[in-house]
Specification:
five-stranded antiparallel sheet, DNA Primase, Chain A, 14 strands, 294 residues, Dna Topoisomerase Vi A Subunit, Chain: A, domain 2
Length: 294
Amino acid sequence: MDSLNGFSQEVRDWIKAKGISIDALLRCGVRGEGEWLQYPQHDFRSGKFIGWKYRNTVDKRTLYKWTKTEVPAPMMSAGSSGRLLLCEGESDFLRLVSCNSGDGVLCIPGSNGWKKEWLELVWSYGQVYLIADNDDAGRRLAQTVSSNIPKLRVCFPEAGDVCDEFTSEYSDSYQLEKLIGESIRIMPAKAHQSSSKRIVQYMRGASQVGIVDVILRLTRNVVLTKTYEGYKCKCVLHEDKTASLHINEKKGVFHCFGCGKGGDAYTFVMEYMGYNFPEAKQYLVEKGLIDEDR
């Protein structure tokens, strides 16, 4: 056992592989013993400590040792940026806390773990993002949470989950902003469609709207420069002296590293024209960029 911070070598090997910092574990009150991480659990209403959730870092077994409570509190790290990141699972939570981005981070314990009671923790934040695993369970979680939080934007990491998305090649802050810049809104669809199908339908619809065509149609004087992932240009959403706006043509999304705005073609029209979503959709229909039934 390494006595420096009370974490065993097994746990240290696991957190190194995940890119999680010891500081993040300590800030969140997480303990390590043998192959196990121990996550503190509290009652949502009283804030009273009720026990521990144990997670084996080798075989991924989970044990629960706490007093039963009607609504458990989520693990949460408060931030100062005015932005809240929701994520699925404790390892993703700790990885995001390790970024030290100043964002609030809230852990949803699994794809079926969202509680409506937690909404009161969300409303004080100006921007709310859900970073969900890029699989069927993650898409179902996105549908559930977005039905409760209208302002929610959803990020699906290309690598599958958060821990795999971050690499040592780039800084955490750059990779986090890039991920958030590619977020989308999950829009309501017909009730008879399954949750995962609705999300896939919207994601495909958004990516099929030609983001480059939309930007060129709205901003006739913009000069696009070819990049590895698509194009870049001076951002038309703020006074930009450099080519801060990056466009991923394949994914149909944009992100400005100057003003921080990003999203899909609908978002660009909303930001540039000052439209709400129905108005942005109607604009794209009138310009012949999407079909009316999309």
